[in-house]
């Protein structure tokens, strides 16, 4: 592109200044002002002092800006999709309300009607029906007329389509309710008018709401805004005069809203965010006199435009009599040349009132396409000077008149809502790691600005914030550009040691000031020409950070470097800056859930990097805990299992006979319950034997048993199996066992317990030959086994599935393998460990059997064992503290399946949990206090 191509089509020089007002001749004295009062102080009627208006600032010199951007187009907003989901949930809630709270809603409506009836009779001049009819007629007329007068023919058609869709949807809903609704729901929606009952769902209200929803947001038009006010008023009046029930009114509004939102999601809405003239004006308000603005993020349809404007630089104060009145918009700019390049790049249409004497003329602007400019070449040039980092927002490269380059980030409302929805699930699922992102773009921009300023105050290298400005549905942030910068992800394994040390130094400075980045990735860490490290993307950070957030920063940085330069160099660079406690604190946080998405993608199949980092940190700092910290509140499978569990509980309770429970408890044998308690205590002895056998250090059997008894207290607040493992690891560490060996020992104990349980099931099934006590037909069992085997084979045939399974079991395998080799070389310890596992499993089965025998029922031992193992496994899948709830119901369901009456099954399950879980807790608390005083825990 030549210099001539870069010049605007019109002259960029400032227009000739307008003639200054002619001052009055100096020889003519000015007339004295007329006093506002008479000589005696009486105000003069009709006379006010004349005050000449002070001349305001003239518009700035006319400037031309070359803009390379994508023309805005209709878009489907995530906000509308979220509203659609909420409205659907609201419809279901109203149906439940009408079914189960009919008397409550009717009573509330009657009370409000009694209070307001006298007031309405005194205030209203016209009858209620007349007001409702008038509003029903005026709302669609005014909305459609407003659309047509503004030239929005498509908007008028969409508004009418919203009304028709709302009407049709409500007609379908009425037909469905009449045909399929249960009597209780129909009664909650029925209203009596003129002596005849009918369903109180209004097609008129639904059509009006559909029209207003399809017409646009409330802020887009005063007609739409006042239309919503009128809708709420006439709906409220209709409820008060008993023309419609409260659930029926809500259902009518929600159906209309659903129809309008569905149309907006289907056809999209106009893009009112900052583009074209609005973008250039906002840049000038931010203090940047731009000559070239180039889009550098993904914009396939970007084209070149010339934007000329005489809007002043910076924020200018306009003195108004009423500061709360809305600011005047800019006058309608004109276009030069063929401006049909794209829908939405057309200039703004709002106009100012004519400029009055003594007031600055309003700035005018023009926009025109620049077909002679090679827009793709400009985009490639801007990206080659500094590749843009991935961003959820729009990113531009801006050059001002001094030749300096700036980076422009535009936060749009729609993208902000999409980002909020993307992080909402993580905020629910993960503890304190997802950014506290709101739906307000102004709050998001202010937080990003605050983080940038605080980071620079702390001495962290981050681009200087040069200005901010707002525009319709957008906020602009202008920062300095780092010349010649390269993202850390572009270096590969050849990153200099000085750069590695520089990254840790920048983090140390931020953490010393209480700042946390929380989103360190290969694109947020850049290196300039002098090989200095800069940290970008502080919008997800914290100013008053928690220890968890700072540890996450360290884990993200270490994983980022390890994926590029290897584990050894990454840890060596960290050890040059961080202290030993800081290094030790990183190991539990090395999990995929804390890493940014691009870091996880960069690792790819190298999922073992995290495990290698944990092992290396444990070897470097023996006090480090290699077990990952529990960060997830729950996982997706937890939700699925919880739903299945609730369905099972509902089914079980429907079959439960509580009279049988009462009779069973009254006839229970206390001696068998005492025997169940003895068997329960034997389980702690078996667990102690396993730990003593598999630990290389010499341990006391009594002390190991007491440790397992103390773990019963921790099980009260931790999911099944988690609390005991943590207590065992703590005990082994106190006994001088290295952390890596302790983790491997605890893992080996769990693996051996699982294998012994599996072998016992096979032996019991083989010893009896069949499970006659179970009611499942053998044919169905065989079919289920074949289908399960086929499913496993199909899963293992998929390479990605095999890789995923191996990633899950590889850490445990790597931990257990050395200990397994050691234990196989010591037959005595192996025999003792297996014996302890057998004692543990048999004691649990006997405690379960004794709980059942206490109520006079028996089962074959194999059936009892299978019912126990299967039920306990299913109950433990749903994570709850100590398995409270899921285990009880699973054991009850297992006994019912084996042929035990439901009342007796529930009683036996409760007794079993009482003797194996609740009674040991007080004894375990005393053991925990004693062991802590002795320094064993």
User: How much of the sequence is in beta strands?
Assistant: 5-15%
**What structural category arises from helix and sheet content?**
alpha+beta
Assembly category: single chain
The Rg value, from CA coordinates, equals 37 Å
Main β-sheet: number of strands, strand sense, barrel status?
9 strands, mixed
**Parts with pLDDT < 50 across at least 5 consecutive residues:** 1-51, 53-57, 326-362, 770-778
Number of strands: 14
Mean pLDDT: 75
Q: What would the principal axes of the Cα set say about the shape?
A: flat
- How far the N terminus sits from the C terminus, by CA atoms, comes to 74 Å
**Which strands sit side by side, in order, in the main sheet?**
6-7-5-1-4-8-9-11-10
Supply the number of helical segments.
31
Helix content: 55-70%
Describe this structure in words.
The chain is α+β, with helices and mostly antiparallel strands. 56% of the residues lie in helices and 8% in strands. The strands form 3 sheets. Strands 6-7-5-1-4-8-9-11-10 form a 9-stranded mixed sheet, sandwiched between helices. The longest helix has 30 residues, at 739-768. The radius of gyration is 37 Å and the shape is flat. Residues 1-51, 53-57, 326-362 and 770-778 have low confidence and may be disordered.
């Amino acid at each position: 592109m030549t210099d001539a191509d870069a010049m605007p089509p019109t002259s960029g020089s400032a227009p000739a200044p307008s003639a200054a007002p002619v001052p009055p001749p100096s020889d003519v004295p000015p007339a004295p002002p007329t006093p506002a009062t008479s000589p005696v102080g009486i105000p003069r009627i009709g006379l006010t002092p004349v005050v000449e208006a002070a001349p305001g600032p003239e518009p700035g010199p006319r400037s031309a800006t070359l803009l390379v951007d994508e023309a805005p187009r209709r878009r489907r907003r995530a906000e509308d999709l979220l509203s659609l989901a909420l409205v659907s949930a609201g419809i279901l809630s109203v149906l439940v309300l009408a079914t189960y709270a009919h008397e409550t809603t009717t009573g509330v409506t009657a009370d409000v009607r009694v209070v307001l009836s006298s007031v309405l009779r005194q205030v209203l001049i016209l009858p209620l029906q007349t007001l409702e009819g008038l509003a029903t007629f005026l709302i669609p007329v005014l909305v459609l007329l407003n659309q047509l007068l503004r030239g929005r023919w498509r908007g008028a058609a969409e508004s009418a389509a919203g009304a028709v869709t709302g009407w049709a949807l409500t007609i379908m809903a009425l037909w469905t309710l009449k045909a399929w609704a249960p009597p209780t729901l129909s009664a909650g929606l029925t209203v009596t008018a003129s002596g005849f009952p009918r369903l109180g769902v209004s097609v008129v209200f639904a059509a009006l709401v559909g029209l207003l929803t399809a017409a646009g947001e409330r802020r887009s038009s005063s007609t739409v805004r006042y239309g919503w006010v009128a809708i709420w008023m006439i709906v409220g009046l209709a409820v008060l005069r008993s023309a419609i029930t409260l659930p029926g009114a809500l259902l009518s509004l929600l159906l209309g809203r659903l129809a309008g939102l569905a149309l907006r999601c289907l056809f999209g809405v106009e893009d009112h965010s900052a583009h074209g003239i609005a973008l250039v004006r906002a840049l000038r308000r931010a203090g940047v006199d731009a000559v070239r603005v180039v889009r550098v993020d993904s914009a396939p349809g970007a084209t070149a435009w010339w934007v000329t404007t005489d809007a002043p630089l910076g924020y200018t104060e306009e003195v108004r009599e009423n500061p709360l009145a809305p600011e005047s918009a800019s006058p309608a700019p004109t276009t030069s040349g063929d401006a049909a390049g794209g829908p939405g790049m057309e200039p703004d249409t709002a106009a100012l009132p004519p400029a009055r004497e003594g007031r600055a003329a309003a700035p005018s602007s023009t926009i025109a396409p620049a077909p002679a400019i090679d827009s793709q070449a400009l985009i490639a040039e801007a990206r080659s000077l500094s590749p843009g980092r991935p961003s959820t927002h729009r990113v531009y490269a801006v050059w001002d008149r001094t030749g300096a380059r700036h980076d422009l980030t535009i936060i749009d409302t729609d993208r902000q809502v999409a980002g909020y929805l993307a992080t909402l699930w993580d905020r629910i699922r993960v503890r304190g790691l997802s950014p506290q992102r709101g739906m307000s773009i102004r709050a998001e921009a202010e937080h990003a600005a605050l983080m940038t300023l605080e980071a620079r105050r702390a001495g962290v290298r981050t681009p200087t914030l040069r200005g901010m400005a707002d525009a319709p549905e957008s906020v602009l942030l202008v920062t300095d550009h780092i010349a010649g910068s390269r993202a850390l992800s572009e270096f590969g394994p050849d990153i200099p040691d000085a750069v590695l040390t520089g990254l840790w130094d920048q983090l140390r400075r931020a953490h010393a000031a209480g700042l946390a980045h929380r989103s360190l990735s290969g694109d947020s860490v850049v290196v300039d020409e002098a090989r200095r490290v800069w940290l970008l993307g502080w919008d997800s950070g914290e100013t008053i950070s928690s220890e968890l957030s700072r540890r996450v920063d360290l884990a993200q940085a270490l994983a980022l470097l390890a994926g590029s330069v290897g584990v050894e160099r990454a840890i060596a660079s960290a050890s040059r800056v961080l202290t030993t406690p800081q290094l030790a604190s990183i190991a539990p946080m090395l999990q995929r859930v804390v890493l940014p998405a691009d870091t996880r993608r960069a690792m790819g199949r190298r999922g073992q990097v995290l495990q290698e980092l944990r092992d290396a940190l444990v070897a470097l700092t023996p006090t480090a805990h290699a077990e990952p910290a529990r960060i997830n509140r729950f996982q997706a499978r937890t939700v699925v299992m919880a739903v299945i569990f609730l369905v099972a509980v509902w089914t079980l309770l429907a079959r439960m006979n509580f009279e049988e429970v009462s009779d069973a408890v009254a006839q229970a044998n206390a001696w068998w319950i005492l025997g169940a308690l003895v068997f329960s205590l034997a389980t702690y002895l078996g667990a102690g034997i396993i730990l003593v056998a598999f630990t290389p250090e010499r341990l006391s059997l009594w002390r190991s048993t007491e440790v397992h008894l103390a773990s019963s207290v921790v099980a009260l607040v931790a999911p099944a199996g988690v609390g005991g493992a943590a207590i065992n690891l703590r005990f082994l560490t106190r006994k001088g066992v290295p952390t890596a060996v302790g983790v491997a020992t605890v893992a080996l104990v769990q693996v051996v317990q699982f294998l012994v349980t599996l072998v016992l099931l096979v032996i019991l099934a083989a010893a009896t030959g069949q499970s006659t006590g179970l009611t499942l037909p053998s044919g169905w069992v065989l079919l289920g086994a074949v289908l399960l085997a086929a499913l496993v084979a199909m899963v293992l045939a998929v390479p990605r599935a095999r890789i995923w399974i191996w990633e899950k079991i590889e850490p445990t395998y790597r931990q257990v393998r050395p200990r397994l080799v050691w234990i196989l070389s010591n037959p005595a310890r192996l025999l003792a460990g297996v014996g302890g596992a057998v004692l543990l499993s048999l004691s649990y089965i006997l405690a379960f059997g004794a709980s059942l025998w206490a109520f006079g029922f028996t089962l074959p031992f194999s059936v009892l064992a299978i019912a126990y193992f299967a039920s306990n496994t299913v109950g433990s899948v749903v994570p709850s503290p100590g398995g409270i709830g899921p285990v009880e119901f699973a054991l009850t369901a297992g006994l019912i399946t084996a042929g035990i009456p439901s009342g007796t099954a529930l009683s036996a399950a409760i007794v079993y949990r009482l003797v194996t879980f609740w009674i040991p807790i007080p004894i375990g608390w005393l053991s925990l206090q004693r062991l802590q005083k002795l320094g064993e825990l």
